[in-house]
Amino acid sequence: MKPPLTTVRKFTDSLAFMELPVFSYIDRNDFAIVKMEELGMPLPYQTPVFRPDHFSIIIIPDGVASYRVDDTVFKLCSNNVLFIRPDTFLSGKWSSLGKAYYISFSNHFLLHHWPAGIDEIQKMGSKKGYAAWFEPNMIENIERICLDMYDEAVCKTPYKYEVIANLILNLLLLIRQQQYTEKPVKAKKHNCYVAAFIGQMENNFSRIISGETTAVLRIKDYAEMQNLNEGYLSKIVSNTTGKTVNQWIHEKLINEIKYLLKNTNKPMREIATLYGFNDLNYFYNYFKRHTNNAPGYFRRYCNAIAKPGTDYRNIVVNV
Amino acid sequence: MPYGTPMWFRANCFSLTLTIDALGCYSTKTNTFAIKPGTLFFSRPNMHRQLEWQNITEVYHLTFSEHFLAKYAGVALFKTFPFLILESVVPRLADTEVLTDLSKICLQIGQVQKENSHFKNNIIANLLTRLLLRVKQHFWDGYTGPVKDKEPDIVMQFIKNLEQHYQQLQQGKATLQLRVKDYAAMQGVHENYLYTVIKEQTGKMVSHWIAEKTILAAQSLLEDPSFTIKEISYRLGFAYVSYFTTFFKKHTGFTPKDFRNKSNV
Lengths: 319, 265
Prior knowledge:
Chain A: This is HTH araC/xylS-type domain-containing protein. In chain A, about 45% of the residues lie in helices and about 20% in strands. By secondary structure, chain A is α+β, with helices and mostly antiparallel strands. In chain B, α6 (about 155-170) packs across α7 (about 180-185) and α7 crosses α8. Chains A and B meet through α5 of A and α5 of B.
């Protein structure tokens, strides 16, 4: 029942991994739009768990699916749109599919073709996934944007990526318009450093999961990455978020370990080495200190209460 | 109908006119164009122009300021759409396919304008950017500047230099503010000559052009909370913060701090 965890991070690689067709117009890794009904997935279809390095927008004019972003399950049906940030555990299950679009794009894509778009992404807030429900006439509008984007993607016009970036931003604006009725507060000066720190931290854990590195970075490394003083970074992080840098890192690490314990059958020793614990005892102690439970006990407990056929014990969001 | 605008009027913002079905005539100080179905023309702020319409069935007219696009869509107008500043009409008539495409975007803008949402301006700016991108895509692929004629266009060249310089200032690549003398030297003409030509053709003094551009640059930097006012004033080439504050207040009526607080609310 548990979908397998993969180390694949790029969109085209994930298509190839699922043995779905990679169309010839998807010629780059930092942007793609796919009409999902053309993929020919056998329904119901359960994707493996990915840890993508790109943003995803899923638009469903007609279909039923449930997507799992970290520990949150989004139950999606027709007229829903889901926005997902990179560096999350992502898996989806399609039970019916009439028409749907999957758009993936990376930070780098926006930065390269429409630098101003980065701010727009920042304004989307810090949640890992956003789902929104649209009126039928709005979804028509959104679908037109998708079709425009698809047309743009398959042909070779000049400035096509600029136009695509523009269309993506339009989608994001429409999602935000649906999300907030009030005008959001403008970002403070320090927030960009804090956001960058959180982004880098998440990226670090993604690289660990995909096996590229085993080093859990420390505050010194993060400060160096942004050319800031260690003390300054820790001060602004704890002032703006209420949590210290170390708390952020430990919490994230514990959450990742918990995820693996809960959702995979990886042996304990493997998980420990993955995160650079050379001594298994130290790993047990570390986990117990932060959660008050031994890792083995936690895994058994989770398996025991998981009823077969349910989406385990996750937070379920009905859009 | 027929309707003509008064002799040589000037507007304070950019405008873009898409003619689906109308006849008329559009003249600038240097050129006159016949307006036929499929003509797309635009004007920049403070450009002398004159319009005459014989009949109008379907025409879309959009006006916007540089600041609007910069604030809501993050567009650096000169960098992304140089043709808006350096040209006044598209080189050929648009074919029907392009026309329907463009008019669809115009209609969408009109629709969004009637709605009441907090993101209205962002969405309009986004659509406008798309419209301009489409125009760029269809008419000006690989455009860098107007076709050189024998007599170099001093006004155009001046505006181009000005834009480039302010882009560099904003990015921190230049620290000294150029003066009238420097702009004249860039084109190899005398200061007084540049001054006369600019004043005659645009109706504004060179120093006005420079001051206006400085204010625009200051405003866009002020909207970014990651710069302090001190940093901004140094970046724009002011030696003293107090001079910058006075200058800003004189031209906008607000102190930089007030402006920043106001735009953050």
